[in-house]
Amino acid sequence: MRIRVTRTGYSDPAPAEPLSVAAHAAESADLLRRLGIERARVLAHSSGCVFALQLALDHPELVDHLATMLPDTRTTIVPGENHLLPLHDSAG
In terms of C-beta distances under 8 Å and separation of at least 24 residues, what long-range contacts does 53-60 make, across chains too? Predict the structure, then answer.
């Protein structure tokens, strides 16, 4: 079974409050559980890599394999902060 996930706010109305990285990961974990998927092979692309990594960190019991393709190197997750920050100064 293949599942393609579009994160909340990308193809539907944006949520009232922006979702944190952990909240996006929790949505994915909830979806896997509702579909009865015990262990998933997760493939993520670009900015989705951050959320897939968080899924693997927060729900390791659900992630069998994790592959990232072209991760967005312009941002990073700050541990404990739960949001993305730019890695590079836009001026330079």
Answer: 53/77, 54/21, 54/22, 54/24, 54/25, 55/25, 55/28, 55/29, 57/25, 58/22, 58/25, 58/26, 58/29, 59/25, 59/29
Rounded CA separation 3/31 (Å): 10
DSSP string, 21-85: HHHHHHHHHHHHHHTT-SSEEEEEETTHHHHHHHHHHH-TTTEEEEEEES--TTEEEPTTT-SEE
Predicted local distance difference test score (pLDDT) of residue 92: 45
Judge contact between 68 and 49, C-beta under 8 A: yes
| Residue 62: alpha-carbon gap to chain centroid | 14
Tokens for 34? Answer: 């509702």
Q: Name the least confident of 31-35, 73-77, 78-82.
A: 78-82
